[in-house]
Write a structure and sequence with these properties.
Blueprint: E1 6-11, E2 21-27, H1 29-40, H2 49-56, H3 69-89
Antiparallel strand pairs: 1-2
Length: 91
């Protein structure tokens, strides 16, 4: 039996929140749709199955709990690197 896809999306707005919040989460077809929307919107996708399971236990609109700060910081660093690389391509 194939593993069921799990996906979540976070948003961080330093003007509104102290930490990132969950804006989408789901399994199966919902997870596939989350990933599709991310790709269409040129949002980098960070794959981490263990984190996806933990994020899927959170509620939409919930702030990331302190025990996930380190890994979420790694994700944000990854996104900054990807965005910087994209910007450098256009210079």
């Amino acid at each position: 039996m194939a593993k069921k896809e799990i996906a979540s999306a976070i948003q961080y707005d330093s003007g509104k929140n102290d930490v990132p919040v969950v804006v989408a989460k789901g399994e199966g077809l919902v997870a596939e749709k989350i990933k599709e929307i991310g790709k269409e919107s040129s949002i980098p996708i960070y794959k981490n199955a263990e984190l996806a399971k933990k994020m899927n236990n959170l509620s939409i609109g919930q702030e990331i709990p302190p025990e996930l700060y380190q890994v979420v910081a790694e994700i944000l660093s990854f996104i900054i690197k990807v965005d910087t690389a994209k910007m450098n391509e256009y210079e």
